[in-house]
Metallophosphoesterase (Flavobacterium proteolyticum), 244 residues
Amino acid sequence: MRKFVLGDIHGGLKAIHQVLERANVTNNDTLIFLGDFVDGWSESPAVLDFLIALQKKQSCIFIRGNHDELLLDWLLGNNENIDEKLWFQHGGETTVKSYQNIDAKTKEKHIHFLQSLQNYYLDTENRLFIHAGFTNMKGVDYEYFKPLFYWDRTLWETALALDPNLSKDAITYPNRLTIYKEIYIGHTPVTKINETIPVNKACVWNVDTGAAFKGKLTIMDIETKEFWQSDALPELYPNENGRN
């Protein structure tokens, strides 16, 4: 049995099929999805249908992303929680359009799935899987404002800015980067630092390789760090803009 982690999907169902095939994933493998299943490409409802069916075949762990929470609020009619103009600019408009022909029963199924998402997953080897990050210096158990689990960017920024020569014993070494053996995140595409593959800084692995934009979807073997990628999403959806 292998354990895989997958980056942000953003409505790109075709990319999921590609990476699962390219990594030769079997029903005996565990899949950890880091969230942001929706908003970007046109197949957000189909992505949720696929994931709901997939968890009946094999072990899956689904982490909550900020875009997943935005969609949940929209489906529930909690519009006071949504800045619609901002959401639409970042992929929400495509998702809303894709739900125009989705029946009420399917929407209810999607609501139930989105409500079931986990804020984070901590495995038996003290490896943390979380969409965005956390801010409390003592770790996720002490985070007061839970939406930071899927909105925070400071964890990744801290890891990026950290002097790699700084000793973990140094008084200035960030405590957040000492709590867990490894931390796997998405949320902030590595394409923002001109990278196209998973990036490791300190104990943090960022596997969001920009599938919402011009990048690819990535799946990575947690033990070996071997990874596989889809085609670039604009190639899979040539008549769409994604979040570009």
